Amino acid sequence: MTGFRKNVPLRQEGKQKRFQEQELEKKLFECGEYRKMPVEEEEITQALSRAKTAFYTNAKKHNVSYFEFLFGQMAYIRKRWWLCQGLVLLILWKILCSVQNNVYVFRGMGVLAVVFVILLIPELWKNRSHESMEIEGTAYFSLRQIYAARMLLFAMADILMLSLFFGIVSVSVQITIKEVLVQFFLPFNVTCCICFRLLYSRWVNSEYLAMALSLLWSVVWGWVVFNEMLYESLAMPVWAGLFMMSIVYLLFVIRQVFKKCENYWEVNPIWN
User: Fold this and answer.
1) Which among 102, 184, 202, 253 has most CB atoms closer than 10 A?
2) Does residue 219 surpass a pLDDT of 50?
3) Chain centroid offset of residue 76 CA
């Protein structure tokens, strides 16, 4: 009798489980029959509209501030590239201190300026090289906001490092503002233009091409500054004009990155 009583709950539990399985099979069958019915395009559009509304309504309940979003994006950036950039500036400072008043050393700053920018390419291309553009496009924040946040973080870090570097160099090494602008920031700006121009290209999806063109530009720059006849033939107004043109074009390509960043996709974004 005791064993029979113990088996009664087990039998009831088995019957309940079979009943649930039958109900599930019935619902799946009904769902399958329903899916065979033709669906109007208008119904799909309405369903997507309701889904968008529900998504944004729920997202606004847990909305974050811009600084929280900026801090969150910082967690995705690998800090080793900033350390490498700092190491490049340290090497450049050591060279400038060991060989002071050497015009050829000052002219060679542009080569390391190119390397300084190249170290940012792996992070800038991370979205495309890992083919995560469509996945990020389904998030609440748009790709424009993601790129803006990451580029702002890069700019803040680089401005801080370069400010400290040139503050120390101005004290320890005799160097003029002209030499800083022409020998460092002009090749720096042109390298940034190359990288950002390729970044928003729909047809170029390789970070290695951006690195190769940047290195090619460093070779061209080295040929210009170490060619004494050519370098001396360029007056200060010419250098100033080239520097201003590089700034204007850099601002243009950065704007194009924000404008065309979603053109990389083969399909239209869902939420943004």
Assistant:
1) 184
2) yes
3) 10
